[in-house]
Amino acid sequence: MKRLINLALLITFQFCYLEWPPNNAMFIFEGEIEIFSKTENWFSNFTHPIILIGFLTQIVLLLGAVIPNFNKKLNTLAVLLLGILVLFFFFIGIMALNYKIALSTLPYLVLMLLYFIKYRKL
Q1: Would you say 1 and 11 are in contact if contact means Cβ atoms under 8 Å apart?
Q2: Does residue 28 contact residue 9 with C-beta atoms inside 8 Å?
Q3: Residue 38 pLDDT exceeds 80
Q4: 8-state DSSP, 35
Q5: What is the rounded distance in angstroms from the CA atom of residue 122 to the CA atom of residue 37?
Q6: 8 Å CB contact between 45 and 51
Q7: TM spans, by residue (predicted)?
Q8: At what angle do helices 72-95 and 49-66 cross, to 10 degrees?
Q9: How far from the centroid of its chain's Cα atoms is residue 118's Cα?
């Protein structure tokens, strides 16, 4: 079950929606495709802390979904760090009165809550 929740958390994070002026918008997976497709600045793309933390936590979630006896504390840390990032997106959506951003984060936040309710013991 934990492996399934990890996979669901990874997928729902990919569909968090971002929007910024003037007329720019994309889902997380579109941003990741753009980051990986720009090979001339490939290394500098990963030096930004938000991108680096997001990328590393996604790798940990993927490893937690694939490896049967993955480190529970590391997995929980990844869920928590990615959850902080998603909460940041959620509050930006609320403050900007942008319902698309706020609603796109809710699936991840609900699954994160389910994860912590079900696996709260470290």
Answers
A1: no
A2: no
A3: no
A4: H
A5: 38
A6: yes
A7: 42-67, 74-95, 101-117
A8: 130
A9: 19
The tens digit of pLDDT for each residue in 39-81 reads: 676 677 677 777 888 888 999 999 999 998 888 899 999 999 9
Residues in CB range of 24: below 8 A, 6 or more apart: none
**In 10 A of CB 97, how many CB atoms?**
8
Q: What is the DSSP string of 56-114?
A: HHHHHHHHHHHSTT--HHHHHHHHHHHHHHHHHHHHHHHHTT-HHHHHHHHHHHHHHHH
| CA dihedral (32, 34, 39, 41) positive or negative | negative
**Average pLDDT for 4-10:** 92
3-class secondary-structure state, position 31 = helix
Backbone angles phi, psi at 64, to 5 degrees: -65, -30
